[in-house]
Amino acid sequence: MLLAHLPALVIVIPLICAPLCVLLRGKDWAFIVALLATWASFACSVLLTIQVMKVGTISYAMGGWAPPYGIEIRLDALNVFILLIVSGIGSVVAPYARNSLLLEHIEERAYMFYCAYLLCLCGLMGVAVTGDAFNLFVFLEISSLSSYVLIALGSDRRALTAAYQYLVMGTIGATFIVIAVGLLYQATGTLNMADIANRLPEAGYTNRTVIAAFAFMVIGAGLKIAIFPLHQWLPNAYTYAPNIVSAFLAATATKVSVYILLRFVFSVFGVEFSFVSLPTAIPLLVLAVLAMFLPSIVACFQTNVKRVLAYSSVAQIGYMVLGLGFVSVAGLTASILHLFNHALMKGALFLVLGAVFYRIGSCNIDRMAGLAKQMPWTMAAFVGGGLSLIGVPLTAGFISKWYLILAALEKGWWYIVVLIVVSSLIAVVYVFRVIEAAYFRDAPDDLVNVAEAPISLLAPAWILVFANFYFGVETSISVGIAERAAQSLMGAG
Q1: Cα separation, 111 vs 49, whole angstroms
Q2: Can you spell out the DSSP letters for 177-192?
Q3: pTM for the model
């Protein structure tokens, strides 16, 4: 029965369709293949989510070899939530490519773009579903190598430098992760993550090999996440990549890296070792608070709006890591929830900027002056995404910050509540700078007759803006899955 093979199909579909795009060559055929592949993967993800929420954890043995001896795909509430984020964003962003690529001079290489895009999607979803530590590294490299190519396709020559910088930093992070996997294999004799978790107590938590593996894994994942101060690759990568690539990577790549940190720190090594035997919580809290403030302040002084959003992403990652540092079900719920909500808000905002770039050829704040009168739907979408980024009530951004505040109050940490509120107010500054230019300034003389963006660019952006408000009001799905995942990670469910 086809439904029984959904865990494999969700990654096999984009993997097979990627080379098919190259074989077909024609940009129209490649676009159709990419569109069908992304939506098929999203449909599989939705069905898998429903299945997991009904029956619990799903284990799928690849090649007929039972785990832990064979390779396993293992799905629980956390996996499927990440799977939903990646496949959902991938399917919404895919239709955006047609007009976006035409403007950025990638049209003649469109089939290569779609191939790299599907490989990146496959790699990110593969990281989420695999139950094998080494395969997690393999899928991470598939997504990373394809993302380097996608970033390098940017029309600005600085895209090549950004891609190279990301390649260097990403390679260091991946090397640290594979070293950690090797050390864990040496200590436990297995690569199955569930089996590693069972065998680690026997190997001994005071074992230097295990401690070294933990250190390598946390630092390697930190580089991939772009947690402050390991974020140096991110601003240029998001700024100079093609607009569709910025939207896709900002909404998915760092979320999958946070998943790696969650999976290993809480599931593989366990709460007892990670936060009791080792003093991990305080460094995470300190780095998270620094990330919430310093990149936000830097964002206030940027003139390119894509760069503003890039530094904002580093700050938002701080909120995700902050919840980890609470070492509680409430804190983890807030972090996992913010993974989902941030994907919606940042995806929407980068798609809006792509529509702006399509019409005026720039994302500079000064060039966007007076744009709200000429592109009202586009700028209204930016306002909607910006409100969610700030955390205004009735938006998804408010929900995850509210849960962070509740987690801090549960611990009795009033000063953390104050820091969350103050850091959110900094976001008001850099979001309002764009709104002020678009709504309250006159347009430059050479941009007085700008047309509204085409529907093919507006529709994906508005879908994500609508999702920001929908999940800001109807929270049962997002909060329900996040709570269940948090309870599982903490060993409470």
Answers
A1: 31
A2: HHHHHHHHHHHHS--B
A3: 0.89
**DSSP at 2:** G
* Closest to 306 (Cα-Cα) out of 392, 245, 243: 243
Q: Is 412 left (phi over 0), alpha (psi -120 to 50) or beta?
A: left
What is the domain partition of the chain in residue ranges? 280-493
Identify the helix (H) or strand (E) that includes residue 59.
strand 58-61
Question: What is d(CA 218, CA 207) in angstroms, rounded to the nearest whole number?
Answer: 17
99 pLDDT above the threshold of 70:
no
Q: What percent of the chain has pLDDT over 70?
A: 96
CA distances for 368 relative to 222, 364, 382, 448, angstroms: 35, 6, 12, 11
Residues 179-183, mean pLDDT to the nearest whole number: 92
Q: Spell out a b/e string for 343-360, using b for 16 or more CB atoms within 10 Å of the CB, else e.
A: bbbbbbbbbbbbbbbbbb
Give the pLDDT confidence of 25-62 residue by residue, as tens digits: 777 788 888 889 999 999 988 898 888 888 888 887 77
Please say whether the beta carbons of 193 and 284 come within 8 A: no
Assess contact for 356 and 458: CB atoms under 8 A. Answer: no
Q: How many other CB atoms sit within 10 Å of the CB of residue 138? A: 14
Q: Which residues, 6 or more positions from 395, have their beta carbon under 8 angstroms from its beta carbon?
A: 345, 384, 387, 388, 468, 469, 472
* Residue 154 dihedral angles phi and psi, to the nearest 5°: -55, 145
